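A common beginner's mistake is to predict each chain separately and then try to dock the pieces by hand. The better habit, illustrated here, is to supply every component at once so that their relative placement is modeled jointly.
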Amino acid sequence: MTDGRERIALVVGALIALALQVMLAPVLAIGPAQPNFIAVYCLAAAVARPQSAGPVLPFVMGMAYDLVGGGAVGSLAFLLVLVTVVASRTMGALNNDTLFMPLAILVASLLLTQVLYGALTLALGTGGSLVDALVYRALPCALYDAVVGLVIYPLAARFLVGQPLQHPGSSQLR
Amino acid sequence: MALNFQNQGSALLRRVLFAVLLVISLASMTVYAREGADGPLHRVQAVVAGAVAPARSAGAAADAALDGAADAAEDAGADESTLTALREQNDQLRRAVAQGEEYRLEAQRLQALLNLKDAYDLEGVGARVIGRSTDAWNQTITIDAGADEGVETGMTVMGPSGVAGQVVAVSPGSSTVRLLSDPASGAAALIQSSRAEGIVRGSLDGLLYLENIGADVTVSVGDVVLTSGLGGSYVRGLLIGTVARVDGAAGDATRRIVVAPGESIRALEEVMVVFKADSPAAAGDAGSAPAGDAEGGA
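With all components supplied together, the output reads:
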């Protein structure tokens, strides 16, 4: 895939994620849990293309999330810039050409994002304890994000990279 | 060699960009946390919230469309040739019944709002809920009344049977309301029977807690909780809810008082933004809150 096409795919994916966050996420809420399509997309993109993942996409998408939602402006942007770098570096180091590794890194980084976001929200003045934040928001949301991530990652790997999900020698995901 | 330089330059640029973006987001967070509700970042957030309000209402329509699609998928299994006429007739009747039921429920909710308006002699503007929070960490709703209708930041918002929250951001055609159940919310409150004052706070577990009540005050399940108006953040004398549970007895330092709100957040469809309240209950004697409303909040 050419660099230009990859960028277009990245931007289109970002716009779709933003639209889903604004229009669909409130409808898909299950109890306290609500999917964070923006975090899932940014992290899936970072894991799917670890060599070319940069900080601009997570920053812009995080800012968009913060401005559209009611949280502190800059908080998710800050976390996504950090966590996507960690996720892409981890993927670069641990990639063993199986489907398990990117999915495991994606799920772990989604959990890390939610936990850190909860801690940051509390630090910025929202009432409640860290345990409550973990039990009532971070863990349910991370679980929901993980399920969404398992759906989005194969799409990201297909459209952002245009490569098969597994090593050429192994059977492909269909 | 040239490629190597290019790669090194690209890596350096990426590192610089990474550091710059981190600093910008950290600075934004700090400014946002320190500035008031009228600060520049809050204003930008309000403008963006106003701009995406139509998209949020489209999301609500998508919710209804999902229900419709499920019904259509169910109907698709029937035999076309024999049941067409009956099905069409049935569809028409079903639509009429559903529409009638929708009107009846809406009239009921609006009547409750009107009753509340009369009971408290409220001045305000009615509004529909057109969107809900896009993230799990904030309990907010978007309503279709904004600065053009006279809504201002800090105004109290009532649901059909009690206080729902407070306006936190206003754009010309819509407003964002932070619900009382949000962990960042807090309303000065008093218990109607004992006149004991405290603060009702939202929490991450979705419950309302009545805090800072004197240790010697006896609190019973069913006690009515009203806004006290202290601090000026909420209009005085409006129903918040009733005491649903008391963990611990009077004198117990770890006593927790759970308040059942008058409103179910998910059920909120129409609200009233309160400009002014002239009733004795709202003006000073909070003890004279309408009994019917107190029951409604139970």
